[in-house]
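[Help] Beginner question about ligand-bound structures

Sorry if this is basic. My supervisor gave me a protein sequence and a SMILES string for tetradecanoyl-COA and asked me to "get the holo structure". I don't really know what that means in practice or what format the answer should be in. Inputs are pasted below exactly as I got them.
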Amino acid sequence: MWLLVICLVAFPLLYEWSITFKYFCKMAFYNGWILTLAILAIPICAVRGRNVENMKVLRFMLLHIKYLYGIKIEVRGWENFNIKEPYVVVSNHQSSLDLLGMMEILPGRCVPIAKRELMYAGTAGLACWLAGVIFINRKKTDDAISVMSEAAETMLKEDVRVWVFPEGTRNHSGSLLPFKRGAFHLAVQAQVPVIPVVMSSYKDFYSKKDRKFATGKCTVRILPGVPTLGLSPDDVPDLTDRVRGLMLDAFSQMSTERPGKEPGGIH
Ligand SMILES: CCCCCCCCCCCCCC(=O)SCCNC(=O)CCNC(=O)[C@H](O)C(C)(C)COP(=O)(O)OP(=O)(O)OC[C@H]1O[C@@H](n2cnc3c(N)ncnc32)[C@H](O)[C@@H]1OP(=O)(O)O
Ligand SMILES: CCCCCCCC/C=C\CCCCCCCC(=O)OC[C@@H](O)COP(=O)(O)O
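Answer (accepted):
No worries, everyone starts somewhere. Holo just means with the ligand present. The predicted complex, written as structure tokens, is below.
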């Protein structure tokens, strides 16, 4: 009994006092909450079986999280998504919080490419599988490439869009890692445009290194599509560099606009 009282008093004190403790609580809740929401999503998605339309269910389930965490997301460039045909979205990848920005703007019939390990993340893995997430084995290049070639066919046959993080891993360095070329091969194979998406730096409110997680604002910019019609595999390196350049420019520009801290949410 006394132990419970001490815990009830100590927890809020520690939460307010220690930035690190708050960081771990907020991250644990983030992951735990997603795993819990997935339990609700699984039976709803299971009715349709593995189907990209289930991505709408996941999107709907996750949209409120930004309010819980007091993260304001401002979207610019919505009009660039006004393309009826399939396309490949490429975006920067800072942390697992990218899921919030992604769900904010996720177009219809669009599935992310994810590392295979995510498939084994309990309920979230199953929900992702049911929503048609494309899993790749990053340790086996040939397998990853053949999965992506299959994706190019599926995009055209089943009118599906694909979201890729071309950095291939999370990167919180405040810049962009060199891009891997899979997303661009995919776009050229399917002869569909690449639409770059840039999420502004989280450094004002989130830092894994400093164990900081406050409230704040993030801007998501959807850039105009880059056509690939008529391009061949030989053009992929140039296309990759061009798109990375566009994204780096946008990222640098957004980093100079200092976003103000927003009140509200879990402090
Ligand atoms: C409610 C619950 C909800 C839960 C919701 C959760 C939502 C889920 C959100 C999930 C978010 C999760 C987010 C995540 O999980 S992000 C992590 C996983 N994503 C990625 O890794 C995507 C980016 N990676 C790539 O594009 C890589 O290139 C791949 C993986 C394909 C290979 O990488 P790898 O490192 O092994 O090799 P390499 O890049 O050195 O390439 C080697 C050579 O092959 C060439 N090549 C490449 N591709 C193709 C191709 N298609 N056709 C022909 N050739 C191709 C390439 O040009 C190069 O040749 P050259 O140029 O040097 O001559
Ligand atoms: C019973 C098993 C329990 C397993 C518990 C696993 C906990 C995970 C819980 C929830 C999953 C949250 C989904 C977040 C989706 C974001 C995925 C993400 O950001 O993946 C990282 C990947 O892009 C790059 O990976 P690396 O930076 O190379 O690494």
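A couple of things worth pointing out: Residues 84 and 159 are 9 Å apart (CA to CA). The beta strands are 71-76, 88-91, 110-115, 134-136, 161-164, 194-199, 206-207, 212-213, 216-222. Feel free to follow up in the thread.
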